[in-house]
Target: Gas vesicle protein GvpN
Amino acid sequence: MRDHKIFQSMEKFVQTPYVQDLIERALAYVRAGFPVHFRGPAGTGKTTLAMYLAQQIGRQVVLIHGNDDFSPTDLVGGLQGYKMSKIVDNFIHSVLKTEEQLNLRWQDACITEAVRNGYTLIYDEFTRSKPEANNVLLSILGEKVLEMPIVRKGERYLQVHPHFTAIFTSNPEEYAGVYKTQDALRDRMITIDLNHFDEETEIAITVAKSGMPVEKAERVVRIVRSFREKGKYEFTPTVRASIAIAKVIHLQENLDAGDPFFKQVFIDILTSETCGTVTIGKTNGNAKGSTARVVEQLFDRYYS
Model:
């Protein structure tokens, strides 16, 4: 659930004007004392941007992932130390010995630890946690104070460390398993909405992640981008589709575009369940083509 190390150098992090603009804006907000929230569909680089931004901040990082089972205790902390054991006599089954130990002590959870020590908190997919669990963030981001539970003896209010920084990511609210963000919480952060990368960035990411040469990756990316623009999808193909196609093809030595397998890779990946079903405009009540046929047409256009 958490990671207490400063992230190692992200050597393959792609630097393009599009990405640099996002990071510079986010750093400006952080330096002004505001939490940053990267919001966008899956595959738009939210988590990677959050990690890179945390690296630029340069302090220890706590990473947590939103979870529907979270309670405030999971984020703030609670009492721990109860232990019970049972011993059954192998010869006299009616004999049962039990031993109980009760030595409760307070244990800080991830957010309290970050607030106390001035760490950078990355709360990935925070809207997958219930709003009532995330309510603990309101006073942290607003009044810069964390109210501790009553069971925490002595310290009732914890002042937020001046170096504490929060970075959030989330998917759109229409995604399954996502809760609507409280207005009060959203009002305390600056949201940067992300969409699909521009072509230059998508090519650079595909090259970095697959090892495919630029001139070959360009065609892969352009087919994926053209397919994305052809119709409406349950799940829109992202740069991940470009990376997957490029990786598979690049690992096949001496594979030519005329090989049926070459084209089939595009069809399999772009028509997989992760991309959903394409809806093309209709003429005389008949669909212009199936998803696979759309991919074939694009493939033939770019590889003919």
Observations:
- Confidence is low (pLDDT under 50) at residues 1-6, 280-289.
